[in-house]
Amino acid sequence: MASSLILLTITFTFIILSSPVTNCATSAKTATHPIPPFKSIYAFGDSYTDTGNTNSTTGPNAYLYASRSPYGQTFFHHPTNRYSDGRLVIDFLAQQLSLPFLPPYLSKTADKSYGVNFAVAGSTAIIYSFFVKNNLTLNRTPQSLQTQLVWFSEFLETKGCKNSITTPKECKAVFDNALIWLGEIGANDYAYTLGSSVSGTTIQKLAIGSVTRFLEAILNKGVKYLVVQGLPPTGCLTLTMYLAAENDRDTLGCVASSNKQSYAHNTILQAKLNDFRKKFPNAVIVYADYWNAYASVVKNPEKYGIKELFKACCGSKSGLYNFDLFNTCGSPVATSCSNPSQYINWDGVHLTEGMYKAVAELLLEGKFSNPPFEYLLSSKRRSG
Question: Which of 11, 104, 123, 215 could form a disulfide with 53 if both were Cys (CB 3.0 to 4.6 A apart)?
Answer without folding.
Answer: 104
